[in-house]
Amino acid sequence: MSKNKLKNEKPDSKKTPPAKDPAMVLKADRVADVKVKELVKDERTHKVLGVGLLLLALLGFIAFTSYLFTWEEDQDKVFRYSFHLMFMGDEHVENLLGRSGAFISHWFFYNGFGLACYLFCYFAFILGTNFIVGRRVFRVWRNVKYVLFGLLYISMATAFVAGHAGFPWGGAVGNALNRWTTGFLGTLGTGLLLLVIGFCWLIWKFNFEFKLPQRKPKPKPVATPEVLVEEMAAEPEPVMEKSKSKKNGLKNDTGVTVIPPAVIDPEETGVTMELIEREEPVVSPLITVIPAAHAPQLDVLVPEEADGPPPFAMNDEKVPDLEETFAPANNRRKNNAPMDVAFEVKPVFEDEPAVDDSQDLGPAQPVSVDPYDPILDLRDYKYPILELLDQHSTEKVVQDAAELEKNKNQIIDTLKNYDIAIQKISATVGPTVTLYEIVPAAGVRISRIKNLEDDIALSLSALGIRIIAPIPGKGTIGIEVPNIRKSIVSLKNMLSSDKFQNSSMDLPIAIGKKIDNENFIADLSKMPHLLMAGATGQGKSVGINTLLVSLLYKKHPSQLKFVLVDPKKVELSLYKLIEKHFLAKLPGEEEAIITDTKKVIHTLNALCIEMDLRYDLLKEAGTRNIREYNAKFTQRRLNPEKGHRYLPFIVLVIDEFADLIMTAGKEVEMPIARLAQLARAVGIHLIIATQRPSVNIITGTIKANFPARIAFKVSSKIDSRTILDIGGAEQLIGQGDMLVSFNGELVRLQCAFVDTPEVERVAEFIGQQRGYPDAFLLPEYVDEKDLEGKEFSLQDRDPLFEEAARIIVQTQQGSTSLLQRRMKLGYNRAGRLMDQLEAAGIVGPNMGSKAREVQVKSDGDLEEILDGLL
Ligand SMILES: Nc1ncnc2c1ncn2[C@@H]1O[C@H](COP(=O)(O)OP(=O)(O)OP(=O)(O)O)[C@@H](O)[C@H]1O
What b-and-e string marks burial along 741-755, b requiring 16 or more CB atoms within 10 Å of the CB? Predict the structure, then answer.
């Protein structure tokens, strides 16, 4: 004993007296406590426990089965020696598991539950499996209930059937239950009770259908229109049914509920799915892509168990098998610590295209219960088809095993240099970068890794490394490393995805793919405005085209209008082809795409007027937002005679914001800030892009009102902070590599790519169709300065004077806001008109909040007055 003590003592223990200080004792206790906790939590402990339980299940099974054949021979000895039998070396028993097998199985069978004892083996098996696999393959609580029920029912039933046989079929428990119940209900009653319980259990489990033979249906009377309407109302809308079926499963003809595989939650159902049951993985010469919804975790380090082709591809000519690929790694394993770390490559996610190329992409046309449908004006309008877009190179993500292996080792080695041990590392290969997700060994603080962020980045020193410590919502650390072979994300693929096709968003924009290759599709109307920045040549213009084309594929010209501001004069000029369908402009303007700063100011102010007008309309209609308003309007509950109209969404796009702020400063900033603050509810949304994300361009006022921001690669960490409030965008690798900050989350995406010729084809496709007679006209804006100093006289009266006079006399309402709405005017101009009408004697003086009195009562009188003014 004393030797052991000496062994455990540290070399310098002679110098340090044994710690008697209570604080130190406490501390030591805490350390021990922490160690025990870690040990309990450690996944290796769980695995060891799992193996132990499986062994127990197997041993129990062997002992019980052997007992069935040997109980007669061994029973005597067990009765005689009881548990001492196990320790009596000279006693021979017949049970395959020897004396302990004989005693334990006797105890379980004879004193316990008879045949039902096998349920204990079953329970040890499911617990063991759960521990080894590390998740709930079987639901424990449900199985506890089954086992308890089974123990009681089976033991009693077997005791009842076996009667007074020598073998303990139902064990002591079964016999006792049987005796009591037979005394209580009699033998017949007990038999019936057991039958009924068994039958009920089967019904509960399998839910049989009990059907009486169907009666011949009576011929239906011919449906009257009312009956038809009722039936239609009772029938769920097909679109609704589809979305419902996604969640809850779909009833088929046989009444069986079919749950799509992706919906089955193993946690929920206790069912695990195997790859074999599902569609074949998509195999390309470059890579095996397993759609994520179909793919459970795939551990590539177990090649013998991997079914089907390997998840890697090495190069175009040669696809070696996994054993070959990992041979050098395995050899190194003996003397290289990094190899001990579990390494897992996550399968690549792929969205299934929902439609074929030639399909019309318009949203499902809602069944209109109301005669008013905004799209009827251009009822023949065809949504652009996917064939107009190109597939850019291979879309398949390339997983290069050698590259993954090399990076993984470098990461492990680097972290080892900083004394950071790793428990597990997994890799998710995205289109441009691979995310290595690291689970640090127990006891390693994430904050330590965070502090070492710069050093680690330096040691890994590849261009574009970004460290995320910790990954939000997980206790892991992410290291993003650029791929040697990057893949382009074609907009075509994103637009054909199920997610985009079936989206019910108001303004869906396909932005790009996440690192796990999931399509990132957002609703601009929820964002509700977007700020984009990036140094020149990093993918901003492509990004803007991506957003615009996404919207063009999903919206009808009656539902959406763009206001395009392009100070560079070239970027957005392609869109002039769709002027009569999708563009908005100021009245009297030649060009819809605005390139001149002065006109930008006018347009922004006109948009502010449109916003105010829309708010008036919403208020009058008693609605809170554009959706409610338009719904009411299409139901014909709003009177167009009173100025109500269907409101399309308006998206303002400014391609180079820096130029505008430099030349016009506050004049541009103020209306933009106002729109950004208020325009969301009335369906006006802003997308603002800039090359120079400096603080004098993206001012506090602007930033505060643009919660959604996109950063392409920028030139400095400061720029990244200006746009995202955090560094990282300077580490991006360009060509559409981007960070999106939205809803408080920062996501790295590869922007979807759409080339200029594709945009041109889409614009031509739309442009050659019948459009509206003109672009959508914004309200007129008259600069205050232009009017200042002009003495009012009837000779200088507004060109709209006569029109205003007619409206006032026809409606007999002397209201300024009526003029604003009906004539799409700003408040100032409508006010001026009203003053002129007063001067001409058409309306009375201002009466505060009440409408003015209309002094001319008939059209005839008005014409006389107007003639007199000429
Ligand atoms: N999403 C993308 N995927 C692949 N390549 C891209 C992507 N976006 C941009 N690129 C490549 O980068 C080039 C420059 O992109 P883009 O013209 O959009 O840059 P920019 O930031 O708008 O530059 P500038 O500000 O000078 O107009 C493109 O011609 C294309 O080759």
Answer: bbeeebbbbbbbbbb
